[in-house]
Amino acid sequence: MIPGSKLPQTGTTIFTVMSALAAELGAINLSQGFPDYDADPRLTALVNDAMQKGYNQYAPMAGWMPLREQIAQKVEKLYGAVYNPDTEITVTAGGTQAIFTAIAATINPNDEVIVFEPAYDCYAPAIKLMGGTVKSLELEPPDYRIAWDMVKRLISNRTRMIILNSPHNPTATILRQEDIDELAALVKNRDILILSDEVYEHLVFDGEVHQSMARYPELQERSFIVASFGKLFHTTGWKMGYCLAPAALMAEFRKIHQYIVFSVNTPMQVGITEYLKDESVYNTLPDFFQRKRDFFRDGLSQTRLELLPCSGSYFQSVSYKHITDIKDCDYAIQITREHGVASIPVSAFYSKGTDHKILRFCFAKKQETLEKAVERLMKL
C-alpha cells in the first residue's frame, strides 16, 4: 500500500543532490553548508570527558539545566534580554527541529504564514503539514531588501506568523534597524507571532550588529528565536541547537518537542556547557569568518562571476547572467561536472523556481579548499 503523500510536490533536497554529485565526481563541495575543518579539540575533549564520567542517559526533556543557564547568560550579555532557563529555553536537535516544532505548536489549518523567498527549504513543508497556508514574498537581487509595504498587503485576519532569517540563507543579507522599525510597527496591536531563524547570529561582518528579536521587548514577547550550536562550534553533524521564547509560547513548544525527540544528546550538552563559559569561542567568530569571506571574494573577483553583497552567514552568492542564460540548476551541474566545484542554484530556494541566474557557494572551508575552488572557477 502506498498512502497519499502529504507533500506530493516535495522530492530530495537540492543540498542532498549536489553533495551526492560532488562526491560522485570528486568535486570540491561548496554546496552544502558545512565546514571541512575540525572543531576545537577542547570541545571534543569536554564531550568525551562527559561520556567517560557517565553522562550517557536521557537529559531532561527541555535540556541540561546548566546548559540552559549558560545560554541565558550568553543571551543577556549579547542582547540585554532576560530568559528564564526553566521555562523559556529548550535545547533541540538542531535548528531545523526547533523551526518545525515552533510551527507545529502554533499553526493550525488555514492559518497564514508570511515567508520571504529565497527561503531555507524547511519552512514551507512544515507549514503545509500543519494545514497552514504559505504567503510568499519574493525578494530580488542584488540586495534582497524587504519591501515592507508589500508585507502589509499580505497581512489578513488569518495571518498567524511571520518567518524571518537573519543573517539570511542563501542571500547573506542581514536585517537592519529600519527593518526592525518597520516590523515592530507592522505587528503592533496584531496577534501575529514571529519565528526568527538566527542560526548565523555570530556571522555578521564589517562591524554590523546582529538584529536579534531578543533586543526588542515588543518583538521578543511574540517571538520564537532559533539558534544553532552546529553553526557556532563548526559541528553541524552534532545537530544541536536551542529555542528561546516567552513562557506561554515555550509551554506549547515543549508539548510538541517531547514527542518528536523528547531530549537531546546528553554528553554533548554537558561538554558544550563548559565550553560556552569561554566567551571568546563566539566573540571571535565574526573575524574568523570575515577573513574567509574576504579571501574567497578576492579570489572570485578574478573570475567571470559577479559578486553579490555578503553581510553575514558563510555563503557567497554570484551572478552568471552575463556569461550564459542556462538555467541555474543546469549551470550548477555543468560547473560541477566540467570544473569540479559544486554550488547551490538559488532558484531552489523559491517556491516557483524563480531563476535570477545566481549560484550560492559556502566558504566555511579551509583556505586551501577555497584556493583550489577559485583556481577551477578561473577557467569558466
Notes on the structure:
The protein has 15 helices and 13 strands. The chain has 2 domains: 14-32 and 284-377, Aspartate Aminotransferase, domain 1 (Alpha-Beta Complex); 41-278, Aspartate Aminotransferase, domain 2. α4 (95-106) packs parallel to α5 (123-129) and α4 crosses α10 (247-260). Helices cover 40% and strands 15% of the residues. The radius of gyration is 21 Å and the shape is globular. It has a 7-stranded mixed β-sheet with strand order 2-8-7-6-5-3-4, with helices on both faces. α7 links the parallel β5 (159-165) and β6 (193-197). The mean pLDDT is 97. It starts with 13 loop residues before the first helix and ends with a helix. The chain has 380 residues and is an alpha/beta fold.
The assembly state of the depicted protein chains is single chain
Number of separate helices:
15
Low-pLDDT ranges? none
Helix content: 40-55%
Measured distance between first and last alpha carbons: 49 Å
Provide the structure class. Answer: alpha/beta
Judging from the principal axes of the Cα atoms, what is the shape?
globular
CATH homologous superfamily identity of the largest domain = Type I PLP-dependent aspartate aminotransferase-like (Major domain)
Radius of gyration: 21 Å
CATH structural class of the largest domain: Alpha Beta
The CATH architecture of the largest domain: 3-Layer(aba) Sandwich
Strand composition percent? 5-15%
Q: Under CATH, the topology of the largest domain is which?
A: Aspartate Aminotransferase, domain 2
Q: In total, how many domains does the architecture comprise? A: 2
Tally the beta strands. 13
Instruction: Report the order of strands and helices.
Output: HEHHEHEHEHEHEHEHEHHHHEEHEEEH
Protein name: Methionine aminotransferase
Pfam family, one: Aminotran_1_2
EC number: 2.6.1.88
Domain Aminotransferase class I/classII large: 28-377
